[in-house]
Amino acid sequence: MHQKAFLDLIEPLKPRLFGFAYRMLRNREDARDAMQELMMKLWNNRKTLETKGNIKTCCFTALYHDCIDRLRKRNRFRLVTGSDLIEIQDNVKVDQDFENNDLIRQIRESIDNLPYKQKVIMELRDFQEFDYEEIAKMMNMTVNAVRVTVARSRASISEKMKKEISYGTGTL
Amino acid sequence: MEQEHFDPDFKEIYEWYIREEQEESRKIYDEIAPELTLPVRRIRRWWYPAAAALLILVAGTWALTSDKSPFQSKPKYTEAEVRQSLEKTIRALSICSKTVREEFSHIEDLSAMTDAIKPAKRTPAIDPKSDSNTIKN
Question: Best interface-test mutation with A: which of B1, B2, B18, B24 has the largest number of A CBs within 10 A?
């Protein structure tokens, strides 16, 4: 694959991929490094890239694994024994630039406090608008399990937000 | 967006939250986008200075070592070449000297016969026995 073909393929995905990495890592520099790493991986494997079915799915899967590795290195979360769910151990420090809105901060916290896998699935579903089938493939889960996870996550966020803010009274 | 598990009131807030988050990450992406370069671009960035450095190195090596280099201070002739040239010159001069002696030997006889004649300016007679006419090796 030539450089131009590669760029045509990857360039439109870059902002979304960065958004994913940024929300997963909650750190600008780490997200940038993860993106750079991904770009290099994709470039090195450009010959096989065309043969891989969905490039978008492929990119997000690779980035997801890279984000997990980075978080592991940071020792910021622990693996729950007997489960494949991963939880963030400490409160993720968000760049101060984005702390100017209380509501955003509260929703963000409630999402960040979800088990890591749930958070990733929510991101892929709500922010990146992947199908349940695609998410299932990426996360190595069944479609039904993804549906259940999304339902639980949404219910959990709704519940938390109900307690924390009076969104029902029109105070947004 | 399909968000069937959300409370209808919260759904709107959540959609707004998603838009805000996406906008924010997009802003950051726009800031860091120039730093996200392809490895190819990176290679190209250092390829030209590296090629220039290599060219300078090759040119420098040639200038310091090549015989054809104008910066080369090596002697033009080797010692053996100078020796050979000198030997040839000496041999030629020896032959020349011998010929001259033979050619002018009769002039010596004539001068003896006409001893009274004293030319105003004489060519010095060549003494065949004299060592000064031959070049010592």
Answer: B24
